Predict the structure.
Amino acid sequence: MNTALDRRAAVQALLQDRGDLLVISGLGSSSYDVFAAGDHPANFYLWGAMGGAAMMGLGLALAQPSRPVAVITGDGEQLMGLGGLATAAAKKPSNLSIIVLDNAHFGETGMQMSHSGLGARLELIASGAGFPSVSTIADQVALDAFRPKLRDRAGPHFARVVISTDHVDRALPPRDGVFLKNRFRGHLGYPVS
Amino acid sequence: MAASDTPTTGPDWPLAIYEALKAADVRQLCYVPDAGHSRLIRLAHDDPAIATTVLTTEEEGVALSAGAWLGGQRAVLLMQSSGVGNCVNMLSLLSSCRFPFLTFVTMRGEWAEFNPWQVAMGKATPAAFDIMGVTVFRLERPDDAGEMAAAAARLAFDSDQAIAVLISQRMIGAKKWTEGK
């Protein structure tokens, strides 16, 4: 049996009372989880660009220093962009949180075991990259304790959320990137030119 | 003295690019370093109005530029031609979402190159951009730098295009190995 957190419930809990939080989600299940927690114009769902979620979050966090930014992605997506952890840590944006939903598998492609399942420790990699704040979240208590950090301006934060491999139904956000981009910028007050 | 600090004669083209980027309100600059970009990188680091980010690999800069635009800022990516191939899949982000994108690429492997390992990616650089829908400008003369950077920025940020300005290796000069030894 699997005692790890349910990914949908975990993301829903992280995003409750989200306030002015801006969210980038990594392709695949992470985008479905963020959408299932409640569609919002301040969500940008990636459907591709694997390995780029954290860097998109960094560019956004630097552009919007007064807004908290959360990247919510999976272990496979982050593993493809491990160098980006060093880049984000070197830049130290205090308003950025990178949250990796870690089920130790590539869930979209047949549940092959990922490096995380084969011994890679993402929280140690983030710590070694220079993140000043690293959390491992394996239960609801830790999840509730972490949530205020999304807004505490003491980042960048890195959190590995240990999630179950149990199946969840797909919840598909819009796939039109131009729509998602314009909706996001419109939310921030930038008109479509 | 490092090779990158070798005094140059002729027009100060990195300054011309910097001034064009300032005029275009570019607020973020990210890079994988190259000696040919060292002066422009230094100008950006010295400017508190530009957030300057060093990358571990070039495709990070494609995603970072898209994130900056989502947040209302204009970004540029500096790299050398050997890094262009690293960007190919990430460039799909630009066409999928019609993100503006502007990169300045110092060329290797094309003019008096001493390192054969630089030649393959140098030769493939324009085609790699082309297959991903990035428009390529060729900067061959230092005197054209400011005007071309301004035109590229206008096309990128006002017309939502992805633009790569390839800076000729002839402009940068052959890499020198003697200084600092």
About this structure: The radius of gyration of chain A is 15 Å. Chain A is about 35% helix and 20% strand. Residues 7-187 of chain A form a domain with the Rossmann fold fold (CATH 3.40.50.970). Residues 103 and 163 of chain A are 5 Å apart (CA to CA).
